[in-house]
Amino acid sequence: MWEYSDTLKDHFFNPRNVGELEDANAVGEVGSLACGDALRLYLKIDPESEKIVDARFKTFGCGSAIASSSALTEMIRGKTIEEALKITNKDIAAYLGGLPPEKMHCSVMGRDAFEAAVACYRGEPAPREKLEGNLVCECFGVTDEQIRKVVRENNLTTVDQVTNYTKAGGGCGQCHDKIDVIIAEVQGILKKERAKSKAPAKRMTTIQKIAKIQEVLEQEIRPSLQNDGGDVELVDLDGDKVILALRGMCTSCPSASVTRQVIEGKLKELVHPDLVVEEVEA
Amino acid sequence: MVAPEVFEAMTPYFMEKYGNPSSMHSFGGKLARDVAAAREKLATLIGAQLQEIMFNSGGTESDATAILSALNTMPQRREIVTTRVEHPAVLNLCKYLARFKGYRVHWLSVDRKGLLNMDEVRAKVSDQTAIVSVMWANNETGVIFPVREIAEIANEHGALMHTDAVQAVGKVPIDLSDSGIHFLSLSGHKLHAVKGIGVLYIKKGTRFVPFIMGGHQESNRRAGTENVPGIVALGVAAELARKHLSEKASFMARLRDRLQEGLLATVPNAHVNGHTDDRLPNTLNMGFEFVEGEAILMRMDEKGICASSGSACASGSLEPSHVLRAMGVPFTAVHGSIRFSLSRYTTDEEIDFVLSEVPNIIAFLRSLSPFGRTDFDRACVVQ
Predict the structure, then answer these.
(1) Is the distance from CB of A44 to CB of A52 less than 8 angstroms?
(2) Which of A9, A254, B154, B225 is surrounded by the most beta carbons within 10 Å?
(3) SS3 A235
(4) Nearest 5°: phi and psi at A140?
């Protein structure tokens, strides 16, 4: 059984604002029976002030899905659309006194349903359909753009976290490598944004680079490879060309090229942005 | 729960009789007799001989030991036959063997009632098969498989037969004396003994490679100092299970059927998952459409009712029950499936209480659900 906060339990056992709204002028719907949770949100919005006069919901799902829906309706009532759009999934989770990591997708569902309702009110296509991008997780129908969004907003760093927030990768697991690449990419951008105010990449001697590369491999790369029975070794550094050899299970792994991309991303991010990775036979 | 008689019998083995049965001194050495007595009780329960009983840590270890031993003793055979509905202890081991060790695994399917197709079993078992592993009874639905018949097919091809009987032992009569079964797994906590103790039955004459190597314990088959309190507990539990078997099996079946009929009569859009005849007497798996299992469990828990669910959310993974999905139970009902487990300690009053509470819980959650209305788009039902 999950460790739920008292606030969450209260919202589950005594959900607020349950039901349909006869005179709703915005309805947002996310999820499906197949996915295991679904939320239909009804809003009554005053066209003059764009204030949310009433909010009701119907939810199929687990305890935290029902509680997140209840919390969402409480949070947005009385706010204008603009004010309410500032509410993030993190705010919903915080309102409930926190959610178990595996249940964060329930708070994401709440926020998505509100966005869908607003899009409906404004006569725009539902955000989910509007979302550009390619399907990454086929089991739960999640695109790369959706994953980028949660990784960015919640500063996620692992595939498990992405699964907890979006369900992506929670089925057959075949998309884990793709999710890894997206995380590395977004985290790279985030790092750059943070570093923008700081000095540009400083000049490093070859010796310094080698030492730093070794350190990054040791701390960031090798533990996860070794988990899968693989390994990597630094063979040489030729200018900005990092020459690596994959060992163990990695040599026969079909996703070795993805591994190379991930390593390159990490080295660019943590050592020097000009580095490129080249792989030699073990 | 641990049977009071079991708890009472095992407690002296912590503070008084805490010796090591493998010791030369009599303080420890005489405990070997208590271990032997427990072994005898286990052998009696499942119709085995003394040397066919090997104590270990429980069902998962037994499953791994049996399957890996078969592969190690028959290196020229590279195939495994098992079912899609095995316990994760077998399922995930076989997935690992297929993915990393190059074994070919044949996954037998089940029908809507959770039953195997014997023609498929015959088609998949061959001279390449090292081991056939089919559970005696399914842990989620209670459906019983014809393992003796499957063992005959395995034997015709010279393959070994393993059965995970963790759910079945003590619930249905098991006599291995004239069977073709080579390995059988059982676990203590399902027999009202304690957690962390179990048995692997190894048919006499079966070639064997240990899973845990080291000392000479359990006739060189399972290293590690004997868990004497656990072994004594399991012995007493086995004796009680045998004594109560026929009387308590019909008692549990009567209560279970009352629960089943009561829920079917009071809750609309509910159904039983799994065959209702070939089934353990203590298991009831029900699907409640348009509601989600974890939410049901939380509301039942508040009332003091404990059950489990095949729902994705209740398990921590995002995938709903592999057993119900293998049976082709539609998604409308998989997420809302609940397993009720009874024991010989369940009472009529408890069944009455569940029958008085569960219909209200389902009705309330349905009032929250956007699904289940007549105008609901059935296209969302993914088969």
Answers:
(1) yes
(2) B154
(3) strand
(4) -115, 10
Residue-wise pLDDT for B110-162, tens only, equals 999 999 999 999 999 999 999 999 999 999 999 999 999 999 999 999 999 99
Is the Cβ of B298 closer than 8 Å to some Cβ of chain A?
Answer: yes
Chain A interface includes B311 (CB < 8 A): yes
What's the whole-model pTM score? Answer: 0.79
pLDDT at B374: 39
Q: Which of B315, B279, B287 is nearest to B372 (CA)?
A: B287
Q: Is residue A12 helix, strand or coil?
A: helix
Name the residue among B263, B253, B265 with its Cα closest to residue B287: B263
Query: pLDDT, tens digit, for every residue of B266-284?
Result: 999 999 999 999 999 999 9
Rounded to 10 deg, the angle between the A63-76 and A6-13 helix axes is 90
Rounded to an integer, what is the distance from CA A129 to the centroid of its chain?
18
The catalytically annotated residue of B94, B306, B313, B380 is: B313
Q: Which residues contact B257 (CB under 8 A, 6 or more apart)?
A: none
Q: Does B312 touch chain A (CB under 8 A)?
A: yes
Instruction: Give the chain A residue nearest B298 (alpha carbons).
Output: A63
The kind and range of the H/E element at A128 are helix A127-130
**How close is the nearest chain A Cα to the Cα of B362, in Å?**
12
Contact B171, B190 (CB under 8 A): no
Please answer whether residues A6 and A97 qualify as being in contact, where contact means their C-beta atoms are separated by less than 8 angstroms.
Answer: yes
- Other CB atoms within 10 A of residue B248 CB: 21
Can A250 be counted among the known catalytic residues? no
How is residue A155 annotated by DSSP? T
Return d(Cα B114, Cα B102) in angstroms, integer: 29
**Per-residue H/E/C for chain B:** CCCHHHHHHHCHHHHCCCCCCCCCCHHHHCHHHHHHHHHHHHHHHHCCCHHHEEEECCHHHHHHHHHHHHHHHCCCCCEEEEECCCCHHHHHHHHHHHHHCCCEEEEECECCCCCECHHHHHHHCCCCEEEEECCCECCCCCEECCHHHHHHHHHHCCCEEEEECCCCECCECCCCCCCCCCEEEEEHHHHCCCCCCEEEEECCCCCCCCCCCCCCHHHHCCCCCCCHHHHHHHHHHHHHHHHHHHHHHHHHHHHHHHHHHHHHHHCCCEEECCCCCCECCCEEEEEECCCCHHHHHHHHHHCCCCCEECCHHHHCCCCCCHHHHHCCCCHHHHCCEEEEECCCCCCHHHHHHHHHHHHHHHHHHHHHCCCCCCCCCHHHCCC
Which positions in chain B touch A38 (Cβ < 8 Å)?
Answer: 370-371
Could you tell me if B353 lies within 8 Å of chain A, comparing CB atoms?
A: no
d(CA B295, CA B307): 12
Residues A147, A158 contacting (CB under 8 angstroms): no
Q: Are A91 and A154 in contact (CB under 8 A)?
A: no
Which residues pair with residue A18 across a beta bridge?
A57
Q: Provide the residue count of chain B.
A: 383
Q: What is the ipTM of this complex?
A: 0.83
